[in-house]
Amino acid sequence: MLEKNKIMYSETLSVYSGAQQKRKNARVHADIPCEIAIATTSRQSDTARLSDLSTGGLALQSKATFYEGDQVRIKFFLDRFQTEVTGVVNRTSGKTIAVIFESISGELKNRIQEFIHKHYFDTSKR
Fold first, then answer.
1. Where are the alpha helices (DSSP H) in 1-126?
2. Please, are residues 99 and 88 in contact by the beta-carbon 8 Å criterion?
3. How much is the mean pLDDT over the chain?
4. How far apart are the C-alpha atoms of 33 and 49, rounded to whole Å?
């Protein structure tokens, strides 16, 4: 039992409300080949590498130039499933492009969640 004057936590402990958290979805680092293109044109896709994935968006590495606000279409294989998502470029930094999904199906959201779960909890899949 704690004594009345003893501190249970360090005074440097910071607690943030959910409203202050920027990241709302679990994510996993990945190295998955993908293709990215502007969604509203028939321009040829550029090759890239998906480096980060969550149910809310992804990050990828590409030599192609994209700008904040671009609506993009990304194709990749998640496990054995061909996957295509659309989203908006949220941020770019060097070759890294961060994309927020516009909307994804419940099925795809579950597939991404399973992929993340396998990465963190299933040691046989590492």
1. 106-121
2. yes
3. 82
4. 5
